[in-house]
Write a structure and sequence with these properties.
By secondary structure, the chain is of the alpha/beta class. The protein folds into two domains: 2-147 and 337-353, 3-Layer(aba) Sandwich (Rossmann fold), CATH 3.40.50.720; 155-333, 2-Layer Sandwich (Dihydrodipicolinate Reductase, domain 2), CATH 3.30.360.10. The protein is built from 13 helices and 13 strands. The strands form two sheets. Strands 4-3-2-1-5-6-7 form a seven-stranded mixed beta sheet, sandwiched between helices. The chain has a six-stranded mixed beta sheet with strand order 9-11-10-8-12-13. Strand 5, helix 4 and strand 6 form a beta-alpha-beta unit. Helix 1 (10-21) packs across helix 13. It is globular, with a radius of gyration of 21 Å.
Length: 354
């Protein structure tokens, strides 16, 4: 059983180390700098060094028998390895890149298993979503929505059992959950965003989170599992900044954030007058074929979204049997390196068992 990890960032590194502890051979790692492949397996020391050593000419800092090369060669070398062995090989995509899609399709066609933490391949075109998910024995994407939470499998079980999924709603951004909690506590919007950025909760450009695009991708994935044939252009998205702010540099954007404080404070007050809490949520109405992402008033006492705090995520699903007064709910940490890596590892193990 062999694992190759694409994306040697925090999640990728954690996944590789977890895999070794489970007796899974890690044969390859790849990042933006370079890639490495070792038929006999990379050691824990190799994985610890790989972030720096991959860029070293000849991979001098890695163990003997490790082949290092450019990232562009990773696909062909891994496919050659697959064809030369009887091992079951799984590729885990722990990047946040759209550019991995072509290689993932190539791996899948060649019979390799593919596990995703990267949501972009399954939130790209509907055509690619269908192609990737057409081989369930070779494909898992649990961690694309809710990190390690079993959101995808819960949806798939409902659909495969013939359940008529009617509505899906939820909070799918730990970053935006943290910001909404701060606003609820009376903090200024600019201060909460700045703190979240300094703690590493946001992307280097906070607009990548505040735009709502990440949540929209997750809503799209769930809607497609429910049977809707929709594209990203079908999702109605409410960003947390005005259109004029989109053209600013990151530095200028952060400087001008206080201009949004009064408006956000007013939105929090209006929610409180409605006996509700302000939350950033996704809503999919399967019957009406609509997908919306933006700020909502979560009623205290009747809406589970109101009880969320910090980086917690929640998915609520209504069907003909899971009625609005007692829907199916999945909640828990929606972010975190270990939680996400553990979720990907669970997918990898399932694929290896096949």
């Amino acid at each position: 059983m062999s694992l190759a990890v694409v994306g040697h960032g925090a999640v990728g590194k954690c996944l590789a180390r977890m895999a070794l502890t489970q007796g899974i051979k890690v044969v390859g790692v790849s990042d933006l700098a370079a890639s490495a492949l070792a038929p006999s397996g990379l050691t824990a020391a190799d994985l610890d060094k790989a972030g720096d050593a991959l860029a070293v000419e000849g991979g001098a800092a890695l163990s003997a028998g490790v082949d290092t090369f450019s990232t562009s060669e990773f696909e062909s070398k891994l496919l050659a390895y697959q064809s030369s062995t009887n091992e079951r090989v799984v590729v885990a995509d722990c990047t946040a890149a759209e550019a991995t899609l072509a290689a993932l399709l190539s791996f899948q066609r060649a019979g390799l298993g593919v596990a995703l933490a990267n949501k972009k391949p399954v939130s790209s075109s509907l055509k690619h979503f269908k192609e990737l998910t057409s081989q369930p024995k070779n494909f898992r994407f649990e961690c694309t929505v809710g990190a390690g939470l079993p959101t995808i499998v819960a949806m798939q079980r409902l659909v495969s059992s013939g359940e008529n999924v009617r509505r899906i709603k939820g909070a799918f951004s730990g970053t935006l959950g943290y910001i909404c909690t701060g606003l609820q506590e009376g903090k200024r919007f600019s201060d909460v965003v700045s703190t979240a950025k300094s703690l590493g909760f946001t992307e280097p450009d906070p607009r990548d989170d505040l735009s709502g695009t990440d949540v929209a991708r997750k809503a799209l994935i769930l809607a497609r599992i429910a049977g809707l044939e929709v594209e990203m252009s079908d999702v109605e998205v409410e960003p947390l900044y005005p259109k004029a702010f989109a053209e600013l540099s990151v530095e200028e954007f952060m400087k001008r954030l206080p201009e949004l404080d009064d408006e956000m404070e007013e939105k929090v007050k209006r929610a409180a007058l409605d006996d509700a809490r302000l939350r950033y949520a996704a809503s999919v109405d399967v019957d009406a074929k609509t997908l919306k992402v933006g700020l909502v008033h979560a009623k205290i006492g009747s809406d589970a979204l109101a009880n969320l705090s910090g980086t917690g995520n929640l998915m609520v699903v209504e069907t003909d049997y899971y009625l609005p007064e007692n829907p199916l709910a999945v909640s828990g940490p929606g972010a975190g390196v270990e939680v996400t890596a553990g979720g990907v590892l669970a997918d990898v193990v399932e694929l290896l068992r096949h």
